[in-house]
């Protein structure tokens, strides 16, 4: 039962990791396995180390691509805000034809000939609000870049969890296959003993039931393993038919000493991406308070225009001055307290954000304490389950030998086999809990594992 619970837990975790994608510039990181290399594999197989899987996901994951696009959009908005403070130049060409009309001027008829009007205008508006708006847009770019780094961190952690989950599930399948092999040997020897009248048929039947149960469990575990690989394909942005092979083992990756070293790491809250986003958001709210103040300030607009008429046919009167310069100063006087209330609202928003930062700071400190406890507890459980599995394996081997020698009963063998499976399941679960606790604490501390 424990093993079935473990399989279900791992499969559910794998699917949830695939769905929960969310958002650092990885251009400097070399991607060990490129898209061209994958296409060159005619068998459609990706053989990956964990680092290669993480780097490949950073390059091809759709959420990561959207995070990069968000940075580009923020950059475009920043330059758009800057453009409002630069001169705006426009040109125009107009054609006018009065269809032969002649103007009577003191008894004189003046033909209104067709003409072209060509003009150019340069205008520039300036206010403090534009400067603040540009500063806010710059901060938005920085927020987008932080979000991108957070997305990269999330994807790396999700790929790491899935990689470990797949390795753990594969190890589970290997352990079950080994147990099935042992049970088949015992079943065969028991059936031979039944034939010669040394054992009863009920002993063979009990072992047969256990063998069938083991086969069913192995099939279920393999299906769960495929679910994990499907979740990894989603993270990698690869085709559903792509075969994934993991080139590293748990022994290659698991570093218990590094995991426990995290317990002594200081928590620098300023390195946490969630906190950085809140801090940046607070600065934007602060700028919006200043922006609301500038609504009380005047704004200046200056413009220059040049116009030239070109008559088609005989020349006519041209009373339009070719050069024109103007300036306009807009001074806000009264707005029925509208500007004042906007300023008050921006101050309240800023204060709320400060309260959120304070609350988040306390929450992150509490979370750090809890995650350290989780890691320490997971490490202790892992060591205990590791020893428990070794002892249970020795008990099963010894009981099997006694059974073959006719000293132990089939019930004792069955119980020893059940205990071994339970111990192995608990060990695998403890291993995943240790890895999960390590990943969560590394994420909070923003440990660079690239």
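Q: What amino acid sequence fits the structure above?
A:
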């Amino acid at each position: 039962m424990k093993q079935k619970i473990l399989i279900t837990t791992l499969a559910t975790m794998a699917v949830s990791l695939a769905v929960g994608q969310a958002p650092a510039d990885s251009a400097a990181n070399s991607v060990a396995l490129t898209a061209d290399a994958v296409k060159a594999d005619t068998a459609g197989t990706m053989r990956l180390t964990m680092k290669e899987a993480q780097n490949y996901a950073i390059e091809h994951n759709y959420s990561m691509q959207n995070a990069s696009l968000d940075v580009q959009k923020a950059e475009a908005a920043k330059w758009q805000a800057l453009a409002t403070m630069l001169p705006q130049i426009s040109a125009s060409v107009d054609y006018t034809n009065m269809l032969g009309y002649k103007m009577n001027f003191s008894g004189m008829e003046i033909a209104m000939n067709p003409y072209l009007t060509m003009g150019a205008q340069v205008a520039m508006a300036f206010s403090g609000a534009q400067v603040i708006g540009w500063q806010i847009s710059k901060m938005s770019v920085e927020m987008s870049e932080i979000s991108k780094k957070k997305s990269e961190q999330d994807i790396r952690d999700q790929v790491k969890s899935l990689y470990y989950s797949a390795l753990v599930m594969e190890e589970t399948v290997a352990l079950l296959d080994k147990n099935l092999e042992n049970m088949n040997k015992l079943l065969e020897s028991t059936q031979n003993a039944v034939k010669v009248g040394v054992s009863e048929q009920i002993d063979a039947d009990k072992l047969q039931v256990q063998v069938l149960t083991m086969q069913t469990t192995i099939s279920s575990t393999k299906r769960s393993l495929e679910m994990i690989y499907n979740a990894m394909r989603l993270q990698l942005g690869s085709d559903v038919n792509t075969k994934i092979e993991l080139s590293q083992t748990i022994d290659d990756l698991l570093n218990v000493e590094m995991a426990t070293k995290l317990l002594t790491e200081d928590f620098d809250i300023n390195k946490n991406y969630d906190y950085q986003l809140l801090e940046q958001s607070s600065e934007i709210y602060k700028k919006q308070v200043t922006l609301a103040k500038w609504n009380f300030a005047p704004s200046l607009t200056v413009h220059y225009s040049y116009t030239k008429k070109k008559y088609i046919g005989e020349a006519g009167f041209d009373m339009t001055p070719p050069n024109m310069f103007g300036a306009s100063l807009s001074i806000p006087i009264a707005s029925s307290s509208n500007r004042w209330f906007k300023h008050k609202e921006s101050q309240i928003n800023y204060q709320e954000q400060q309260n959120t930062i304070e609350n988040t700071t306390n929450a992150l400190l509490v979370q750090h304490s809890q995650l350290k406890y989780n890691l320490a507890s997971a490490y202790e459980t892992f060591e205990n389950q590791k020893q428990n599995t070794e002892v249970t394996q020795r008990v099963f081997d010894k009981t099997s030998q006694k059974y073959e020698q006719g000293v132990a009963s089939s019930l004792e063998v069955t119980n020893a086999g059940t205990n071994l499976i339970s111990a192995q399941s608990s060990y695998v679960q403890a291993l995943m809990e240790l890895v999960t606790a390590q990943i969560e604490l590394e994420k909070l501390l923003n440990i660079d594992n690239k």
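Q: And what stands out in the fold?
A: The chain has one domain: 2-87+127-297+337-445.
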